[in-house]
């Protein structure tokens, strides 16, 4: 069980780690050769250009202005200075709503923390219940647990303080949530009213179009909507299986890129023709003129594309039983998207059409029955994934006690006997171990969502986010609390009657706040600070720039900033809200650590949204409802 000293050591390690991450980031972002990584969004929007090519060779890659290094934390005020209306135009409404959730956490928990420390901490501290329990029932505790409700004796009138505070915290939280929801609703209305009209606002996705022997899918869709929506139907586009066509277009794009590269190279070499070999990787084979070769190849593949396009349009087998149907008004599209079209609920399924770049094309033609079976399979798979993950969670909780560590790895006994190492292990190791175990979970949940049959990338993210939160609730919260309490009070369980075990668990659960404090510091302090480095995009950009980039278009594609990971970020926020609201009345010690997380995350992600991430898909604040 972590003591106050262990928490202090862990806080020191994580604060130092966060500070080191910020220093490394400040140095990296000042270097000209990293400019396209840390300001990628500005490059893609045309708001920033490459540093000047003039000057010394070293200055093209390294910033030699030492005065700029003295202002290494300037990125923080830069991230905060952009007004919210301008940020909405720059990053999209969904990104701004996402940032407001962190600000909402500060508005909720700052007053709660002040009130809890002013009222509950003195009430909890001025008792000796845990000291007596340690002597009479072998209950394991530390000095930090004296700040929790576990230090209040049974049937004490002091519990009224906690009850009143619990109601006060709940009322305050509901009030702030209500005001925030009103604000976001108004923001969405203003955004939609001021935004230019988009085709997806007038379009509905229709799936499971029934086969008809007398009409093609296109004719059937047109006939159906002319009959059922005669005054509002505008046009439609059936979904085609154009995978082969897409491959040809991709191949042509690659050939065009090579042609641009050799034309640029030819222009630089002052009319000297460039020859290439046609063999493997250009190492052997017949020598040909590069420009003439790629012009001929592009002409050849263009003819193949035209032929394939005609086949896709004319071949009935390539037409999928799905279509995008457009209406004359948004109202008509809204009515169609939200109503059942026929008596058979498995046919003519309608929903709002995603915007074009948000469509997950692979899932458009999945039959209704298959969708139901897929979702049932994924529900069962998720249940077993959640259930069996309790095993590694129990292993992590065993690491939260020195006895558990020695039992798992006896050879570490000499090391853990050292006072400092003991503090590091108990205050740092459990949190980092849990974070490692959860590293691959988001990818697994996204694969499950794709198999389930959702038709847009944003809906895939919402489903994955929902499951991630349920997983956190069951495993990270409930399983950690129960298994952790069992491991810490194992000696007490073995030496008392069974009817006393529930009481012991009740005393132990508030004391599990120490584990969550260590997890918050690892994940919410050092983890959030580490995310600002954007190591994966940084490494991938330089690898692509070194080996794959041939033209300016290649360089733009190599930046690939992506967007905020809604499927991972939103469940983490919900977990911290859960921890804060659950532990506020029982262990107020946790609240300052959560406040640091929300403040730090708000600054870091505001910077990322301003300079790095692209706008969210479906960005009209719809993800706030999730």
Return the structural class. mainly alpha
User: Which ranges are low-confidence, i.e. pLDDT below 50, for 5 or more consecutive residues?
Assistant: none
Measure the end-to-end span: 36 Å
Nearest-integer average pLDDT? 84
Q: Helical region count?
A: 27
Report the principal-axis shape: globular
Q: Which range best describes the helical content: under 10%, 10-25%, 25-40%, 40-55%, 55-70% or over 70%?
A: 55-70%
Based on DSSP secondary structure assignment, what is the total number of beta strands?
6
Quick one: biggest sheet?
4 strands, antiparallel
Side by side, the strands of the main sheet go 2-5-1-6
Radius of gyration: 30 Å
Classify the beta-strand content into a percent band.
5-15%
Family: Belongs to the CSC1 (TC 1.A.17) family.
Subcellular location: Membrane
Keywords: Calcium, Ion channel, Ion transport, Membrane, Transmembrane, Transmembrane helix, Transport
Protein name: Calcium-dependent channel 7TM region putative phosphate
